[in-house]
Amino acid sequence: MRVAIGATRHGSLPTARRRRSLITTCSTSSDSSKRCPSTVRIGRQWMEYQGANNWDGLLDPLDDTLRSEIVRYGEFVQAAYTCFDFDPSSPSYATCRFPRHSFLRRSGLPCTGYRVTRNLHATSGIRLPRWARAASTWLSRRSSWIGYVAVCQDEDEIARLGRRDIVVAFRGTATCLEWLENLRATLTHLPCPFPPSASQPEPMVQRGFWSLFTSPGSIRRCLRDEVRDEIARLLDAYGGKGQPLSLTVTGHSLGAALAVLTAYDITTTFQDAPMVTVVSFGGPRVGNASFCRRLEERGGKVLRIVNTQDIITKVPGFVIDDNNVKEEDSSEGVIPSWLLSKTGWVYADIGRELRVDGRRTANVVACHDLSVYLNLVNQLSAKCPFRSLATQAMAGQR
């Protein structure tokens, strides 16, 4: 199934007015959490909350401290949406609307204790026909601002977190070419230092996501190199100070896919990298089983927040289970794995999954919106006495 990632209207690009409306709605729904930064002290338990034990015992029921951390990282992603210029008629279309020094404050996060250190840009590798290059900016824009890197510098927040944290945050799909890259759903091979074997086939990832991650622009380096340069600089600045350091990569939709690719690249590029954790919201599948296994072997931890009603989390491709491949929404028929393996569409789900149950609706946008995800996570509480009963009741209705 071909589904555009990060859509706000099925089959069409959102208008600037519509997009600003969605952003305003999301910001309003979580204003209280943004005005009141978390005071929950994590301290020496920080590695557990970053996934050192794969979040065992923290997900069902959802630990309240982990819940607050998930929402906190989701707000970093929301800031990336808030700062992006969605208006194709604007001279600054597809750029960041705010300067780095006031970025978080103007996006509604004035008290995070973090400072933005670098803007990040993604470039599409799709080559448009000549007639399309002369079309509107919305159609022909190849490079766009897609996220940022921030580092925690407030001593009180560092003490609360138990370490200095570096955040890499990515927004979802916004430009026409990003939409087109989402549709390039066949798998492509990754550079691999080890020869493939029957037990260790080559790692492969979705072609369009890899294109956005590795394609250079006319005046900018590729997203992968921008991230590498900044992470190397920050590790040099903070890595040898005797203070624990963590890397948290977070994103929504397309940004969730780029977050996984970023974690993979960091863990394979930096031999002495600190703990790398991905917190993703509404992310599509990214790669095959070999890719997922390589990331896990390198120590990368991935926590996927998935709305059961969100179709984006069920594409692209198929997942092999016990030598069979089943279509996601089909309860009948089994397709032999050897047959679908020839299509280049055999993917694997990565990491641990935190599943939230949204309201059943035919509105694909409502199920996928980041604000819906954050509200659903906020509703999960280990202290709620009726949560287990409600979960059992919902399971009985299926």
- Biggest sheet overview: 7 strands, mixed
Spatial separation of the terminal alpha carbons: 24 Å
**CA gyration radius, whole angstroms:** 20 Å
Oligomer: single chain
Low-pLDDT segments, ≥5 res: 1-35, 322-333, 385-398
Q: Taking all residues together, what is the mean pLDDT? A: 83
Percent of residues in helices: 25-40%
Sheet with the most strands: spatial strand order: 1-2-3-6-7-8-13
Q: Supply the number of helical segments.
A: 17
Given helix and strand content, the structural type is alpha/beta
Q: Secondary-structure element sequence?
A: HHHHHEHHEHEHEEHHEHEHEEEEHEEHHH
Question: Which overall shape is indicated by the principal axes computed on the Cα atoms?
Answer: globular
Number of strands: 13
In percent, how much strand structure appears in the residues? 15-25%
Family: Belongs to the AB hydrolase superfamily. Lipase family.
GO molecular function: phospholipase activity
GO cellular component, one term: chloroplast
Keywords: Chloroplast, Hydrolase, Lipid degradation, Lipid metabolism, Plastid, Transit peptide
Gist?
Keywords: Chloroplast, Hydrolase, Lipid degradation, Lipid metabolism, Plastid, Transit peptide. Helix content is 37%, strand content 18%.
Keywords:
chloroplast; 7-stranded mixed beta sheet; lipid metabolism; single chain; globular; alpha/beta
Question: Mind explaining what this structure looks like?
Answer:
The protein has 398 residues and is an alpha/beta fold. The chain is built from 17 helices and 13 strands. It has a seven-stranded mixed sheet with strand order 1-2-3-6-7-8-13, sandwiched between helices. A hairpin with an 8-residue loop joins strand 10 and strand 11 (335-336). The longest helix is centred in the N-terminal third of the chain and has 20 residues, at 64-83. The protein starts with 15 loop residues before the first helix and ends with a helix. Residues 1-35, 322-333 and 385-398 have low confidence and may be disordered. It holds the Pfam family Lipase_3.
